[in-house]
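so my prof wants the structure for this chain in the tokens format not the other one, which i didnt know existed until like an hour ago. anyway here's the sequence
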Amino acid sequence: MAYIINNRLSLDTLIVKRGGKAGVGIRLMPGLNRVKDELWARAKENIHVQNRLDRDEYVEQQLGDDGLQALSTIKAIKMVEKTTDVSILEGWLDDDRSKVKTAIKKQIERLTAPVGDPEE
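here's what i got, hopefully its the right format
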């Protein structure tokens, strides 16, 4: 799995062509995204994607099988703050560092909190 950070403030949808078949869409939310390696390799062939990589609007983040474990605590917390996909965050809850785990839980709470009280 490739991990891509979308530093833009908008949702981006990329259409990746697969030979003679219909294209497949890749949705990049602001923050960290997971994309299948094969699809990301094809997406990077597009000049617009290359330009965004060159301008650091998209950043390829290397995360091994250990997830956040390979990153320092500070870098791991910054990565958590850039992540808006709750399923990715939930997958990282097994991190054994209390500060990282607290940051993950807070980010999940922010993302899943109700948006205002309907009775107000």
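also thought this was worth mentioning. DSSP finds five helices and five strands in the chain.
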